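Support reply, case 0932

Customer input (verbatim):
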Amino acid sequence: MSQSVSSQRNSLRYRSRLLQPEAERRPDTHPLTWRLRDDGEVVWLEEYLRKDGYQSVRKALDEGDPQAIIATMKEANVRGRGGAGFSAGLKWSLTLQGGEMPRGYMICNADEMEPGTFKDRLLMEQQPHLLIEGMILGALANNSFYGYVFLRGEYVESARVLNRALEEARKAGWLGADINGSGFDFDIAVHTGAGRYICGEETALINSLEGRRANPRAKPPFPGQSGAWGKPSVVNNVETLCNVPAVILNGADWYQALSGDRTDDGGSKLYGISGPVEKPGLWELPMGTTGGEILDRAGGMRGNRQLKAWLPGGASTGFLLPEHLDLPLDFDTVGKEGSRLGTGLLAMAPQEQSMVALMRNLEEFFARESCGWCTPCRDGLPWTVKLLRALELGQGETGDIELLDKLAADCGPGLTFCAHAPGAAMPLQTALKHFRHEFEQGVSKPRGKAHQDPIPVGEV
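Our regenerated output:
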């Protein structure tokens, strides 16, 4: 192995490390991580089976009632862990099946390209059979005959581990024809993407999977009615699917009780933190854990820095302030504060961080990753970058900040084909709300002709 690849793998492992030792993780409280090893090595099939692996599949096959799986998921209210927070059970209940409907596809969205997010990599690289088990259960519930793990192309180690685990599962009879003697057929393939953030949107992902340009589709029809190759398809995030085995094995009431009285959202969550903190990493904690508790687990800000602002769940969520650290991190509470829980991985900005420079960096990413399918995103995001660059250099003009307000509003929900542009707008809107004075400091001259023409997306 070359030194550069070795260094890359070491870096990826460091950024995905779980900071809870085995002694703190139990099957009844940590369904996602209790099987993980302290040494970070992969939990292969033999060890996974010793730790109750595939018991939920065995139970579901014995009961032979796909609708019972969906009912349990709805009752448990397993909300999507990829960022949207939509009920997985409700999504499954909307999949067309039965009668003359063809069997469809179960698709795992493993295109983890949200800046500041690194939780799914941990699950895939260290516990691949949990994801496979969750996909089998999803296939049973949704009458799927084949599954795909749509994997971020840079996750070379994840691909290696998943492909070996899939081969183990086939040889043991957990994938392929007649799974566990039940008459149910299902198999999975890993599909590595070409490196586009837009593939995190489920219909753009499906287009890419089919070999098409990764543009989002107009909806309806939704993938549950007509998805991959025109067949009913379900797309769920890695962490979402990894919750399914424990829910089916232990029941909805057990899952709801995991969060205690912190929130109405049940279950546990892989929370994480990055930025200038003492111990960046991941923890499995009850849903509704506060940002302050996560920051404390990370040892606080590094080098006596003071916290200025933080993103609660990746780059496409809105900025919160230090006074929001006491809020329970669940979907509805964070939403009421003008942000989103997103992926639940906190990104911390210290007091000395320029918010204009930070926003310029984020918006450059969003502008570059736009598929260009709709005007507010294709043209609005490059305009935003141009204005932020000028403000960062102290060369902004009168009216630039008001124009940023308008561009962000034009990228809002319901005005574009997908959530890419609204995701880009949210951090900008909240940065302008909380730190407008920093943007105003970049205005140095009256309005001129400097910003008449937007820069092409390719130059961002």
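We compared this against your earlier run and they match. Two observations from our side: Residues 117 and 345 are 6 Å apart (CA to CA). The first helix runs from residue 3 to 15. Please reopen the case if you see a mismatch on your end.
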